[in-house]
Structures are given as structure tokens and as C-alpha cells.
Amino acid sequence: MDATALIAEDEPLLAAELEQALKVAWPELRVVARAEHGAAAVELALRTRPDVLFLDIRMPGLSGFEAAQAIAEDWPDDAGAPLIVFVTAYDQHALQAFEHAAVDYVLKPVDAARLARTVARLKTLLGERRGANGPSWEAALARWRELLASDALGGVQRAATPRLDVIQAASGNAIHLVPVREVVYFEAADKYVRVLTADAEHLIRLSLRELLPQLDPQRFWQIHRGTVVRSDAIARAERDEAGKVTLVLRGRPERLVVSRLHAHRFKPM
To answer: Is 32:55 a contact under the CB 8 Å cutoff?
Structure first.
């Protein structure tokens, strides 16, 4: 069976080893890209749209989990969902990945017999999907929602983290104390987070990943990997003919786009 793949692995020798093992186990598979870190994996995957992604769980910058989330959010609507195989040297992480989001996992160093079983599983799934005129995103998205709701990303459980009541945002020589209840939404900006209230904007030196566990998940909803909005600041959600959801806010003129991973939040009661 002909298919294409991307390998994301930050150690070139291990990437070459996996590619060589795949040539033996699956001669028809064509590796169209190799990425040395998570951000490159996202960019190359979206550009080349391979059938299968082999993602190392621990990579510089974005982890394999985070890269897969970014790919799922930005993957074109007219392309079938890729199959994801996580690669790891840590068995507990591999099992966690397999249970929550992946088609399968591969342990490092690569074992030929184990890889052969993974290849057989991938071929079966690709055959089923192609026979059904392309895969639906629904099953893939459901598994990713399970991943995001779990602790599988390696973060701290939200319930175990103290809630944040006040944001301390520096501006020159001043520190602005911004009550969290007044924040309309948070937006990731490189190594910072933009904090937007109805009448002001602040910048804090904190990543959204670090901030999220400190927010009440019932009140603050993640609608994209880079955006978190206060639920009662949402005036309405509008869905276009293609199914894309856009939020109209109370107190802010911006319209926020909801990624396909989080669009399930917005359904009539």
C-alpha cells in the first residue's frame, strides 16, 4: 500500500534509524519530510499533508503531543485526518499516548517485530479509510478532546493548582493588578500572553501552558491552542456554512475563531 509519512525526531541518528526500519517494514511508504523539533513538525505536516505522522513525544519547543494538537487544529478541512504514531523511549508515556490519542506507538530503540505490527495496523486503517472515501475527522477529534481533558500532556492537574484571582502585569515602572474576573480573553504571543479586558490590554511574561492550570476551567474556555476566553464574556457563537465557529464578545470588538477541536462546546441546549 502506497502512503506518505513525516518523521519528527530531534536526534538525527534516531530519525535515520526509524526511516531505515520503515523502508524494510513498509517499502511502499514514502517519507516526505523529517523535522528536528515540534514547530518544524507542524509546519512540514501542514505543507506536505502526509498520511502518517511519527512524532517523538519529547522534542525541543513543542512536544509531540502539542505538535499533534496544533496540526489537528490547523489541518485543512478538505484533507483527511492523518494517522498519528508517537515515538518514545519511555514506555509509560507511550502507553498513555496510545490510550488517549494515537493510532499506535513505537518505542526507542526501534524493534523490528513491534514496528511490523504498527505498520500492519496503519495499513488496515488506511485501507478502511480509503474504502470509505476518506476519513471523518470526528473520531480523531474525539480522541484529541480526551487527551486535552486528561493529564496526558504532562502538565499539572488543574484541580491541584491554586486558582489565580489577580494578574500582575508590569508596564514600565508600574505593576497593574488586573482581577481575573475582568479578563475577557487571554491570547498567546510568543513567550508572553496578552491579557485583554473590556478597556485595556496587558502583557505578562508567562506562557499560556503555564497559565491554564491556574484558571477555572468552568469559567475560562480554551477555544484554540492560543486563545482562552471567559465564558460569560461570550455574547453569541456564529457558525458558517462550512461549520466554522466564530465568537462575538461582550466588551471587545474582536471576533474570535474557534478551532475544530473546541467547536463541540457550542451547541444549542
So the answer is: no
Specify the pLDDT at position 127.
85
Q: DSSP class of residue 4?
A: E
Cα distance between the two ends of the chain:
45
**Residue 185 near residue 196, CB atoms below 8 Å:** yes
- In the DSSP assignment, the letter for residue 269 is -
Cell 466564530 belongs to residue? 246
Query: Is 8:64 a contact under the CB 8 Å cutoff?
Result: yes
* Cis status of the peptide bond prior to 109, with omega within 30 of 0: yes
Type of residue at 68: A
Q: Is the pTM of this model over 0.70?
A: yes
The answer on pLDDT for 159 being more than 60 is no
Most distant pair of Cα atoms in the chain: their distance: 63
Segments in 59-111 forming alpha helices (H): 64-74, 91-100
| Residue 141: pLDDT over 80 | no
Residue 243: left (phi > 0), alpha (psi -120 to 50), or beta? Answer: left
Beta strands (DSSP E) in 9-162 are 29-35, 52-56, 83-88, 104-107
In contact, 229 and 247? CB cutoff 8 Å? yes
The half-sphere exposure of 9 on its side-chain side, counting CA atoms within 13 A, is 26
62-74: average pLDDT: 86
Domains along the sequence of the chain with CATH: 3-149 (3.40.50.2300), 158-265 (2.40.50.1020)
pLDDT at site 157: 41
